[in-house]
Amino acid sequence: MNINAEIDRLVQYALKKHLISQWDIDLSRNRILEVLQIHDYKSATIQDEELASPVPILENMLDWSAENGRLQENTVTYRDLLDTKIMGCLVPSQGEVIRSFNEAVDTDGPKEATAAFYQLSQDVHYIRTDRIAKNEKWLAPTEYGDLQMTINLSKPEKDPVAIAAARLMQKSEYPTCLLCKENVGYEGRLDHPARQNHRIIPVTLENEQWYLQFSPYVYYHEHAIVLAGEHKPMKVSKHTFTKLLQFVEQYPHYFLGSNADLPIVGGSILSHDHFQGGHHTFPMEVAKIEHTFQLEKYKDVQFGTVKWPMSVIRLQGLNQHDLIAAADEILREWKQYHDELAEIHAFTGDTPHNTITPIARRRGELFELDLVLRNNRTSEEHPFGIFHPHEEVHHIKKENIGLIEVMGLAVLPGRLLDELKGIAAILDNGKDKKVILEDPDLSKHYDWVVKITENNHSHQTSYQLLLDEVGKVFATILEHSGVFKRTEAGQQAFLRFINELKRKIK
Q1: For an engineered disulfide with 19, which of 14, 96, 291, 304 has Cβ 3.0 to 4.6 Å away?
Q2: How far apart (Å, rounded) are the C-alpha atoms in residues 58 and 193?
Q3: Strand bridging mode 145-151 / 409-412
Q4: Strand ranges (E), 312-461
Q5: What pTM did the predictor assign?
Q6: Shortest CA distance to 200 belongs to which of 217, 218, 180?
Q7: pLDDT digit string (tens) for 455-497?
Q8: Nearest residue to 224 (alpha-carbon basis) of 118, 359, 100, 369
Q9: Angle, CA of 6, 10 and 16, to the nearest 5°
């Protein structure tokens, strides 16, 4: 392999993607030479080419690096650290990216500005489109509409070599977490991803400095993270509702939501206040209002419960301040709410259990807030959580149900793909289903497979049948997570809470 040719190809790619100008060619090349510790360079003759991604070039450069002692170990972690460092040589500065973004907002509008920033994040290989393309995606028809399903294969598997080496490293608390603004341009280490190709956009919310960035492993179109400039814990409050609505006022094509702020029902990073948003329509957004009601104090706000497996109160109105005040009162009432018949206890001693997952969006001129009621209590029968995927569905998923899944997009573990394909192969080959019991990875699915194949008379392939049935399991998972069940008794309990709101909020 001619490494000089690969360097020239990468510089040409950056030029065509407008990451650099013609005046940056020598500078960018020299930066890459420095990273690869190359002290002798001769220009190579390369073909003119249009590449959607730098991945083919980077793979060649990483293979060369492995063969020539530039990689300590030829593993995913070490390769990721190096290819990010290479791409960091070609990324515009933070100030330049912000200037271009603000110009795009002024000239073309926020929708076009976020689209351009999203494309930049892909072009610089911060969003790893090659890995995201491996995710399995499908729609699953249910009584709640078509749920959006993904099996997540985009995050690299744990690298045992890097894990072992990281144990010997001196521990660092910089950046404080994966969401801190200090990740911009950070070189990374074995226990922290490299971020030389990472840029963020400042956003002002409630007179505080926040930042907009994209998730490197996007689950949907323009999967954005909006993070506090200060490292502070998540807390759902009146300020949360204010920030969410102020954001969708500035970016009306985006939704923005917050994970709940308690363990089990909350997000994976509760230590840093942040939201998730993007340019995507989720199944919950198009779910119908099932029951409308009015709170006397807020005559200009429309209230309703949503036909959804989880318990959702939807607020709509033209006035942000009214929505914020109404949402705050509902949150405060819910935090104190008990219902023995529905197994809802607000506290165990001084430990709180009730909170809300809020989501904001625009619907034409209206502002809309969805308040998803959550409770994180556990019991002997359900040690992982009473309102959490129950043990009967753990063969599909037992992880927490966060904001994205609340809205109807399943993020299923990567191990599931091989398991489903293994089961489909057994069914297609006409083997006795008991063969499943002989495989330690498949045996947990045996009872489920027997049940779904007993009365199956469809003409689907076995694999398609399994995908549809996984969608039904996901609907059940969301029902498990709902505080007021979809049964008659559960819906009566929901109405009891609504009536309590009517009585107290006057």
Answers
A1: 14
A2: 17
A3: parallel
A4: 312-317, 347-348, 351-352, 354-363, 366-375, 409-412
A5: 0.94
A6: 180
A7: 777 778 999 999 999 999 999 999 999 999 999 999 999 999 9
A8: 118
A9: 140
